[in-house]
Design a protein that fits this description.
By secondary structure, the chain is α/β, with parallel strands linked by helices. The chain folds into 2 domains: 189 residues, Glycogen Phosphorylase B (Rossmann fold, 3-Layer(aba) Sandwich), CATH 3.40.50.2000; 161 residues, Rossmann fold (3-Layer(aba) Sandwich), CATH 3.40.50.2000. The protein has 13 helices and 12 strands. Helix 7 links the parallel strand 9 and strand 10. Helix 1 packs across helix 13, helix 2 packs across helix 3 and helix 6 packs parallel to helix 7. The longest helix is centred in the N-terminal third of the chain and has 15 residues.
Length: 366
Amino acid sequence: MSTCAVLSFRLGGTDGVSIVADTWIDALHRLGFEVRTVAGEGQVDIQVPDLAIGRWPDGGTGLHGVGAATAAEIDRLTAEVRSAVADADLVVVENLGSIPMNLPASIAVARAREGLPTIWHHHDPAWQRDRYADVTELPPQELIESGQWRHVTINEFTRNEFLKRGIAATTIHNGFDVHAELGDRDGERARHNFSEDELVMVHPVRAIERKNIPLALEIAQRVGATYWLTGPAEEGYEATLNALLAEARSNGINVVHESSSSLADMYAASDVVVFPSTWEGFGNPPIDAAIHRRAAIVSHYPVAEELRSLGFTWFDPENLESFRTWSADPDLSLLDHNREVVESTLSLEIMQAALTDLLDEAGWLP
């Protein structure tokens, strides 16, 4: 049996990269691979701590590891990665070659995979973040023309940016389980003390700056909804978040900052999904909302426009009157339509077919 190693900073969590990696792992199993997971942290088969985000001091630059790891340390990590994936016929690198959250690890993995079958799966490359705009080391490029690397982006916007930089890539949109079971609305609402007639607006994200929590709170206030944030604060956002939520409560907004029992229960317990991000490599929650038949209020970050072009009907943060009108007398055909768009364009089956085509072209199918 062919073996594939899936490698990243972290795997098995609730972050977007981990969730998408899980769908790829399932697809690879279905294609006949034995899959091993390798990461710096998380529930994985092989843990290599030096692959973790922020493993190396950044000296305040935000570029984790720049100037911090010695050549000897990178050589040691390169050898450790080679050992961890030594018997893998294929390695899928999830975003570790895209964004410099641990640049020594990115360098080490690229060296370890030189001339070997590798898919670099890119969620959000460095140049799409202002603080990483000057990074030139990523994405890794083959030093020798072995033809053994494939770059995969999760949207056409990024694929075109790769092309402008002279890097050929294939777009494989994220895949979603359109057969997912619906959750327990009454039980989950009771767990969070939501009343029967309470309008609950869920924001299913980690609390970081680009998720635009100030706008999400403003939207909740303007439509008279409870604001339910499910994810923890990360990237040093704790103090800012605490201040924002305290101010919101003082302004009369009912704020709930708690995780959900499950993804399905979260969507079942909510009435609308708010997603006003300033930037996303993709943006899974509005797609999940469609599967679970929930309306969504979505901003206009670039990839959201690409997703809208697939046919989704989402409400605009700048035109909340249309949401208020719909919410007062919901037209369920909107929910039916959005679900049909997922089924026809973004299902797991469609994603697996695209991955199969890529592996077939490269000669890597088991």
